[in-house]
Every structure is written in C-alpha cells, then in structure tokens.
Amino acid sequence: MNSKRDPVFKDKGFLINHASSIMDFYHPRCIDYDLGGFFHHFRDDGSIYDSSTRHLVSSTRFIFNYSMASIHLKNDKYFDIIRHGIDFLRNTHLDTQTGGYAWILENSDIKDSTNYCYGLAFVLLSYSTAYKAGVLETKNYIGETFDLMEKYFWQNDYELYADEISADWTQVSNYRGQNANMHSCEALIAAFEATNNTKYLDKALIIADNICNRQAEQADGLIWEHYNVNWEIDWTFNIDKPNDLFRPWGFQVGHLTEWSKLLLILERYVSEDWLLPRAVELFEDAVEMGWDAKNLGLYYGFAPNGDVCDSDKYFWVQAESFAAAALLANRTKDNKYWDWYKRIWIFSWKHMIDHEYGAWFRILDANNNKYGNLKSPAGKTDYHTMGACYEVLNVI
C-alpha cells in the first residue's frame, strides 16, 4: 500500500472510525442471546468455529469493548450489551460458593475452575469500565473483586500478586508472573478512574514500582516474565514455549511497551520522578530489540542474549506499541515518538488489519504472512487494538 494513500493516523476521526469498524466486525454477531454472554471464536470472515467454549478473558474483554464503545462511539445500542455481558459473568462464570470465576466453560459447564490472577484482573477491568460507562451496579463488584484479589493473591512479603490458585483456594502454585501483575496494574488504574478511590491507585503504583524497578534489576533493567516462589527469575520456565498464549518464554516486546504506556498513564495521577524515565527506557529497549528492519513490524519476543526467539508479529504487540509511542510523544514533545507511532501504524495498516472483513489478524510470520484463518481464538476480542485507539485519543 502506498504510504501517500495511507490515512492520517493521528487524526481523531480516523481513530474513532477505526475503533468503530472493529466493533462492527464483532457486533452483533458475537452476542449469544440463547446461552448468554458472547461467542468467542471467529474466523477471518466472521463465521463462528466454536460456539460453546467460553474463556474468562474473552468474556471480560467483550464487556470492556462494549463499555468503551458506549463511552467513545456515542452509540446507545452498545449499552444494554454491557449488562448482558455482566449478567453472564455473574451468573455463569462466578462461583457464588467460593467467590472465584471459572477460567473455561463449555456451554454453561465448568471445564477449568482454576483461579488465575490474570483472569481476575480482567474481571476488575470489566467492572471498572462498565461503571465508567454508567452501569452503576458494578461499583459494588469492583470492591468485591479487589477484596478477593487481596485476600487470596496479594503477597505482603513481595508486594505483588501470586498467579494461580486452585478452585477451592487451598493450593497456591509456586509460579509467579509479571503478566498477571501488569494487567492487575491496568485494572487498578481503571478502578481508580471509575471510583476516584485512591486505594486502587496506590496499589497500582506499588505493583508498577516493584515490577519495573525492583524485579527489572534482576534482568539489567528489562522485565522478565517468569519467577519462582521467592520472586527470583526463572530463566527456564517454558523455555521450549516462546509462543505460549499466556506465559511465553523470552522478553516480551509488547509487554515492555505496554508497561511504558501504563507508567505514563500512572503519571497523570501521581508525581513520581522515575515514571517517565522508565517509560522511555522500556519503549526504547522494545523497539531496539524487537523492530524488524527488513519486513517492518515488531517481533514477539527476544532471548536474554538479545536474539529474537519468536519472530512472529502479533496484533496486540503492534497496538500496545503505537499507543505507548503516542503517549511518549505527547509527554516528551519529541517527534521521534510520533515517527514510531506512524511507522508501526503503516506496517499494521498494510499487513495486520483485515481490510476485507474487519478487525485485525491475530498473528503473522516473520515475512508478514498469515498462518491460518482464525481471527479470534481464546482471549482475542481486539480489546488491545480498540483500547489503543481510545488511549491515543486521550492525548491528541
């Protein structure tokens, strides 16, 4: 695609229209009026290839999508669907006996009832965003979810959340991960924005500080994904799985830029000298190590020695990175970040976005070719891509 014909990616109208076009791919075909909640598994053309499996991450992200669309796209038809999603979350995912949320459902039957902090982070994000959109009954659910995370996952000794606990809350896994903490930080910021209760903001800042400073000291300032029970780096966890869906091995390019974005959002609300410098460092490291100079786009992961360990191009990595670039450009007034913003968008517009059917392709290989025709397997609802557009709208 000729760059002269590319859209103006910094234009508010473009960002609104792009987010709206992504919603048009999912709405209304994602709504399950029979079982409740949403269908989660779509091919590129929008056809459903699995109508029965429900994943907590997708269930909650669809609530986020409809809430943000209701706020930003000024479309009343989205509002009732937020409550439709909340109802399924409360009536089907939530175990009223334990307070936990089923990780995977088959129709209405529980397939995996393990409690994951990562999942609860998205529960908290969905309630917080729904409350922002005007679904007022979710205010109590925000506090309820935070209290649940505090009771079972928070570790006072390390001031970070554990990762995985059995359905009955008796067995805590020895695995510790930064990803669950990063998304908890994101959700806590949203909870603060929704309620103005500073306890959420205070917790978000503690997590950000401990991951981006204390834990990063173990990896020369970079953020490793996996740790043992004492929050010491586990360099070998999933070493044979650089493409694991939730726990990939290697430094994650998209998580470095996602943290950069979150630190800049935190800086809107708290005055901490370290936030901006760390945001700059994490972004700079990500694009230095992860940018494909030959075929463009950002790789998925790189090894401790700096070699690319997963050369695939994931949709969410590009989205989080252009959002971080825009926030850095706005904050530093350095145009090189707008250059990065445009560079990532040009690649994404040409290769990652499905101009025929809508939304973004999930994954491309190093040569920017698709692997198959599955646009939305578990977890992918384009929450990253629409969320990135909304975040850029905050600063332009």
Short description:
The protein has 396 residues and is mainly alpha-helical. It contains 12 helices and 17 strands.
How would you describe this protein?
The chain is mainly alpha-helical. It has helices spanning 12-26, 56-72, 79-93, 117-132, 138-152, 178-195, 198-214, 253-266, 275-290, 315-332, 335-352, 383-393; strands at residues 41-43, 48-50, 53-55, 104-106, 109-112, 115-116, 154-155, 160-161, 164-165, 176-177, 226-227, 251-252, 301-302, 308-310, 313-314, 363-364, 374-376. It has one domain (3-393): Alpha/alpha barrel (Glycosyltransferase), CATH 1.50.10.10. The strands form seven sheets. A three-stranded antiparallel beta sheet has the order 2-1-17, with no helix packed on it. It has a three-stranded antiparallel beta sheet with strand order 3-4-5. A three-stranded antiparallel beta sheet has the order 12-13-14. Strand 13 (301-302) and strand 14 (308-310) form a beta hairpin. Helix 10 (315-332) packs parallel to helix 12 (383-393). The two termini are 25 Å apart. The model has no long low-confidence stretch (mean pLDDT 97).
**Helix count?**
12
Overall body shape: globular
Number of strands: 17
Residue share in β-strands: 5-15%
Query: How widely separated are the two ends?
Result: 25 Å
Structural class computed from helices and strand pairing? mainly alpha
Main β-sheet description: 3 strands, antiparallel
**Helix proportion:** 40-55%
The number of distinct structural domains comes to 1
Helix and strand run: HEEEHHEEEHHEEEEHHEEHHEEEHHEEH
Question: Poorly predicted ranges (pLDDT <50, ≥5 residues)?
Answer: none
Radius of gyration from CA coordinates = 20 Å
